[in-house]
């Protein structure tokens, strides 16, 4: 048997392996001699008992699913925290720029009022 097949089938219960082998044998018999199909075992005799090992498998699947959900949740929370920090930094930059532009606007208003005063003085002197 192939080494890769051995490693992939190690986690399967023995009953499942036998069921799979029986099913493959039945398919081969049907393909090779359709008249011999009456010698096949009924399906109920081949299916392993559900109560023997299914509890361990379902518990392990449940815990694996729970671990995957927790890891995905942790990743999403980390991403949201990263976005909040980045947004805070951008808001600080924008507020600094607005403050600087506000000072520039106040300076322009002062210069504008000085120019208007000077033009009014020049206009008064000409009249």
From TrEMBL:
InterPro entries (UniProt xref): DUF4577
Protein name: Leucine-rich single-pass membrane protein 1
Membrane-crossing segments per the record: 61-85
Keyword line: Membrane, Transmembrane, Transmembrane helix
PANTHER family: LEUCINE-RICH SINGLE-PASS MEMBRANE PROTEIN 1 (PTHR36475:SF1)
Source organism phylogeny: Eukaryota, Metazoa, Chordata, Craniata, Vertebrata
């Amino acid at each position: 048997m192939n080494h890769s097949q051995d490693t992939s089938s190690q986690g399967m219960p023995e009953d499942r392996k036998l069921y799979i082998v029986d099913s493959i044998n039945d398919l081969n018999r049907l393909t090779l001699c359709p008249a011999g199909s009456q010698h096949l075992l009924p399906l109920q005799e081949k299916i392993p008992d559900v109560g023997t090992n299914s509890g361990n498998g379902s518990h392990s699947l449940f815990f694996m699913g729970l671990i995957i959900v927790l890891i995905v949740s942790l990743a999403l929370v980390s991403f949201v925290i990263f976005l909040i920090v980045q947004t805070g930094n951008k808001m600080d930059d924008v507020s600094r720029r607005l403050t600087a532009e506000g000072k520039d606007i106040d300076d322009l208003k002062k210069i504008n009022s000085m120019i208007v005063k000077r033009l009014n003085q020049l206009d008064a002197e000409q009249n």
